[in-house]
Amino acid sequence: MGRILVIAEHDGASLNASTAKCMACATAIDNEGIDVAVLSADGAAICDQAAALSGVAKVLKVDHEIFASQLAATLAPQIVELAGDYSHILGPSTTFGKDLMPRVAALLGVAQISDIMEVKSAYSFQRPIYAGNAIVTVDASPERKLVATVRTASYKAVSSDGSGTIEAVEAGASFPTHTRLVEIKASSGDRPDLQTAAKVISGGRALASEENFSLIYSLADKIGAGVGASRAAVDAGYVPNDMQVGQTGKIIAPDLYVAIGISGAIQHLTGIKDAGTIVAINKDPEAPIFEVADIGLVGDLFEIVPELEKQLG
Amino acid sequence: MQKILVCLKRVVDYNVRVRVKPDGTGVVTDGVKMSVNPFDEIALEEALRIKERGAANEVIVMSIGSAEAQQQLRTGLAMGADRAILVETDEAVEPLSAARAMLATIEREQPGMVILGKQAIDDDNSQTGQMLAALWGRPQATFASEVVLDGETATVTREVDAGLETIAVDLPAVITVDLRMNEPRYVKLPDIMKAKRKPLETVSFSDLNVENEHHLTTTHFAPPAQREKGVMVEDVGALIQALKDKGLV
Ligand SMILES: Cc1cc2nc3c(=O)[nH]c(=O)nc-3n(C[C@H](O)[C@H](O)[C@H](O)COP(=O)(O)OP(=O)(O)OC[C@H]3O[C@@H](n4cnc5c(N)ncnc54)[C@H](O)[C@@H]3O)c2cc1C
Ligand SMILES: Nc1ncnc2c1ncn2[C@@H]1O[C@H](COP(=O)(O)O)[C@@H](O)[C@H]1O
Predict the structure, then answer these.
(1) A4-168 CATH fold
(2) What pTM was estimated for this model as a whole?
């Protein structure tokens, strides 16, 4: 048993919700304390948020202007510097963590366990493979440090009633210059974030155009939902890539998921299997989505969706 | 750039509905269709396009796995790769060991770029490219949807949770590709015939002086929890009622 280090994800201003979910996973592992590392250009506000997470002992505040860009190539060597006696180093299985953590593991010369969905013991975990068609139990050796990513959809964020201390740590690694951030184009908008929204409405290929997707946005806005899409809808250019739900997009666990004009391919379903209630609207009664839907409605979305919006008042 | 190295993994075809063996010792792979990992086909397509634009001279495909992985390497040669390397082993290979075997191959071949898939759809690890870049001490541009080459740097657009991120990396570099980078070409029969005559070299881990280390043990395979089949409703009114009953609207 040892101490656990959680790597914070943030956008330079505030902590990403994935960190509170990693904390939930860390808490399920026997430990002698959980610390959070915040690597940023100016981490005061982010560290306050991290210190408030329930279960945090210490926040390591590592400020350096180079961390204004959250690049794996510069973050990883610094995390190796921090690794010290920690028995476990955890990050989220968001694109941030998936990019970073294997680089950390390789620098430490150890394996990584990706997408922890359940903790069996400090060195035994469950994770999905084959797009969630199988769940495996993976055992690691206590002899080595364990680097892992946490499948955020499997965990509820810990509350923010903690009182960790904040400790400033000098950035001590030597940073490569071979990788440079050019720009980040966030397609965001004002809608709830797909990965944390309590309700999500997704549209598929059946929407048939970018313009028709306004049906989905409008319904989502009516009930305060985030908006997602199938890969087919993203590939066809109806919506931007960050809206893709599924094996290779976002894995989400909202209370309500509404799939509209989505067939229910296995790669899509793997992204929603932890949703509370799944609603499917599809004109094909044989569509595989109905096998997993809690509530199904067969019909033409171009009639149903406007009617739904109207009747919701 | 002289050479581009592309890594192809042999995996269960993405159309197969994978099943867990009843005794929990693995998934059923007997008689199941095997293919090149779909992301790796995209990786190879990108390498071929770079070569066709004159920005590289040779595309090498490599795979680590059993002798059967020769089939996937032949597919890569039929798509247009110039030669192939199989690191043959019948044991399981964890991403760290795969990355070490790739690094040893890089040291021999000195490619200007290594392109991999962003994840292998069997183990869904999404680790190997990042580990390779770390061991090599070179840049990584993961989850890429566009690569623009300009002399000794590559400008890469990455699909990230927030949207699209663009980074510039000095070459040599490791790139892992996402689905929207390109549409891989189909192989034609004459290409398959031609591929049979292209060189395919087989080496072992020990030839590369790499140990196939195992840090993790998979002890049990289980099918995922099934969602219970729900109800079908007749119309919009009934749908809204059902949602209201659950307190969701
Ligand atoms: C390696 C790999 C990874 C992948 N990753 C993902 C992923 O992360 N996410 C993902 O979503 N997919 C992913 N896919 C793609 C996946 O296999 C499917 O191709 C995709 O999900 C299909 O999208 P769709 O359901 O919108 O389209 P379709 O399968 O074409 O389904 C459209 C549905 O709309 C219905 N429909 C048509 N018109 C109407 C109408 N007027 N009213 C109501 N219903 C209508 C049809 O009955 C049909 O069921 C991946 C594939 C591969 C190979
Ligand atoms: N055994 C292997 N042989 C060839 N390429 C591999 C192998 N394992 C992983 N790769 C490459 O690494 C990528 C990511 O794999 P993974 O980290 O296992 O998800 C794959 O898309 C392949 O390009």
Answers:
(1) Rossmann fold (3.40.50)
(2) 0.96
